[in-house]
Write a structure and sequence with these properties.
Number of helices: 11
Radius of gyration: 22 Å
Shape: globular
Order of helices and strands: HEEEEEEHEHHEHEHEEHEEHEHEHH
Structural class: alpha/beta
CATH class: Alpha Beta
CATH superfamily: Glycosidases
Helix content: 25-40%
Number of strands: 15
Largest sheet: 8 strands, parallel, barrel
CATH topology: TIM Barrel
Length: about 450
Amino acid sequence: MTAVVAVAVVGAVQLLVSGGSAAAAGPAVRVVANRLVDGAGAAVSLRGVNVSGTEFACIQGGTPTSRGWSIYGGQPLDQPATFSAIAGWHANAVRVPLNEDCWLGINGVNPAYGGANYRNAIQTEINAIHGAGLYAILDLHWTSPGNWAAYGQQSMADADHSPTFWAQVATAYKNDPAVIFDLFNEPFFYYIAAGGPDQWACWHTGCTQTTVVTAGQVGPDGATTGYTSSYTWQSAGMQQLLDAVRGTGATQPIVVNGVDWSNDLSGWLSHPLTDPAQQLLAGWHSYPGQPCAVSSCWTNTIAPIARSFPVLVGETGDSSAGTQTYLPTFLPWADTNGINYLAWTWNPWGNPDNVLVQDWIGTPTTGEGQYYKGRLPTSKGSYLPFQRQTPSNSGRLAAGIRYTPALAVAAAALGGLLLWMAALAARRRQATSRRARRGGDRF
């Protein structure tokens, strides 16, 4: 009887999402315990790529009052063939880097490349990604506080604009179950004001910072800057960004990257975030030569997190040409330990560092591209047994409960039922409110 009820609830949820036939429902992804599952509760291992362009072309160049030169950077990011080629490598996810100034249409971005035009272009790209059967990961890549243009990788999201960015993005995509939100690309905490908190406290809650990455832009005063400029500003914490997403009613999975350019996750468990939807992934970037590019760090820092939360390597790479030195060791370990991963980058650039393809039809580069393409068809992740860590993230499975596929189906069904009940309650509250405003009239 329980199985029949679970199947019925899953079918009802699919009908609600698709607005019609359950068979029409597209891909979906959720967090259950320490793994990702699809709409049917089957385990999903993300294996994908980054596609760069939408973080920089919309803002670089131009003048302080008319910034940018493109949205896609002259690349075919609106073409279904681009993402069909990615799917042809047996990938299942694409990470899309975004620029908060372009999305919001602020700080001098030319309206042709920002605001509504930018948002529509991103939607077109997401449609093409989903059309190829791929998940889309929306990543807040470039930001900047105040009137400075988001011209490069900032040390952390800013309290001025980033919460608004996430509230808008989450509102736009909260009904898309094949989207994952990546709160901030690569935090690093070199510029915390004297007397401020340690980097993990700043990561969690935000803090005062004294330097902004201006990356050679023409600033608000008309002067050309260096790589950084002195400026006092308030960074947003990961909890504030998470709250901005959840405040919209969006319940999709959220990636929260660590510190030191997302390579250090040593404080991730000891600085727990509160997620009422219980849909967090630990985000990690791993390249050769970084501190956590050695097996001792993987075993002692990453594996304990992977027993409690899904881990997503949002970026990894190796040399583009010649013998690979990192991925042949790293990716087998990631597969064995249930780590999800995306390689940088599916862009046929002249600079060979960390480039997967020679062209947009997916001809692999010698080295990284050939290795990654060859690995994906046989890369089947095996999640570690679930084990609650302390401190815990409220709302997750209690210690001692063992993950099974049946549990995943039941959890997905229950989650869908609860969402449906919440939506029904909200509609009833709205109806009551409207009747009160109309003096009890029917509607």
